[in-house]
Design goal:
The structure is a single chain. Helix 1 runs parallel beside helix 7. 39% of the residues are buried. The longest helix is centred in the N-terminal third of the chain and has 15 residues. The protein has seven helices and five strands. A five-stranded parallel sheet has the order 2-1-3-4-5, sandwiched between helices. The protein has a single domain, classed as 3-Layer(aba) Sandwich (Rossmann fold). By secondary structure, it is an alpha/beta fold. Flavin mononucleotide binds next to helix 1.
Length: 177
């Protein structure tokens, strides 16, 4: 299947990217086509809330979402890969998700598969509670089929991440598809 990884960290060689690439390695070994998009490097403005699209239709804004929309609609699976920022996803990714507005019905109809890859400095048990709640709600609302998640507790630096078990978890998640 076609897998699109929406990688949100501005650190293109950071911990989120490490997880994304290990996931991709595993998925490619199983024959899947994986594309990683570093959304921080795209020019995607926040949704203005005008709802000229009527939640399905052309967006009045023309930026890199024009191309990303086509990639999303061509994909079978979306992987949300984000560092934890103030206990939620990075704004770069939230911006993209808010712009789903103009393809809301198309995304829902596709019954896409999904996964979550994330890293944080903290290792407290509650570190990812808010992010998981948000992701679970997106899965439910957008009729996604959740294929799994890697919660990178204690991945505050690439060194910490490389010493953790989470890279292996990401690889195994890719291999499990
Ligand atoms: C703006 C900002 C907010 C952050 N918020 C949190 C947080 O709420 N909890 C946490 O454990 N770590 C937090 N961190 C740490 C990052 O999640 C962590 O360093 C992560 O490894 C960064 O991933 P990257 O290398 O892919 O950029 C924050 C970092 C930044 C820059």
């Amino acid at each position: 299947m076609k897998i699109l990884v929406l990688q949100a960290s501005p650190n293109l060689n950071g911990s989120t990217a490490l997880l994304a690439d290990e996931f991709a390695r595993g998925a490619r070994e199983k024959g899947h086509e994986v594309t990683r998009v570093d959304v921080d490097r795209l020019d995607i403005a926040p949704c203005t809330g005008c709802v000229a699209c009527g939640y399905e239709g052309p967006c009045v804004q023309h930026d890199d979402m024009d191309g990303l929309r086509e990639q999303i609609l061509a994909a079978d699976m979306l992987v949300l890969a984000t560092p934890l920022y103030y206990y939620g996803m990075a704004a770069q990714l939230k911006c993209v998700i808010d712009r789903f507005c103009s393809v809301n019905a198309s995304i829902t109809r596709k019954r896409m598969k999904s996964a979550l890859l994330t890293v944080a400095w903290n290792a407290d048990s509650w570190t990812f509670e808010a992010l998981e709640a948000h992701y679970n709600t997106l899965v439910r609302y957008l009729c996604w089929q959740d294929c799994g998640r890697v919660l990178g507790y204690g991945c505050g630096t690439t060194g910490m991440t490389k010493r953790s078990s989470h890279l292996q978890e990401a690889y195994q998640l890719g291999r499990s598809l």
